[in-house]
What does this fold into?
Amino acid sequence: MVEKRADVHADDPADVVVDVIVRADTTPPDDWSGTPFGHLDIRSLVSEARQGSEKIMVGQTVYPPGGTHEHHLHPDAEEVVIVMSGRGWHRVGSDYYDIGPGDIVFIPANAEHSAGCDEGDEPMVILWILGGAPSLEKAGYAAVPEIPRDR
It folds into this structure.
């Protein structure tokens, strides 16, 4: 199957060509410069803007060793995180979980969460899915205070 780029701004919906097959390694990183996520490699793979999705968004994030991101929540979307490679942690609410390849994390809507990659040589690669929202804007976003982890 041939990969095609979506044009969701076509005048006639019949002219929209949707990315049916998407590869993270050929999708350019999103521009998060100037945000708490600017040091991460984040790629939007399935979204309202790319395919015209109405209820789901899928992305990939690569965390460098020791990398993390701002603690936050999405009031209008559930999230699922799938660890593809590397090791790290995920915090949901006040609980921390060690995560590695094959682990799946469920984050309910409105649940505070954050993630990070363990120190070492290997980055952590995750796929994330927002359920109920086809974009980060529609999922909503609110930064929340971080609680330090006792190890």
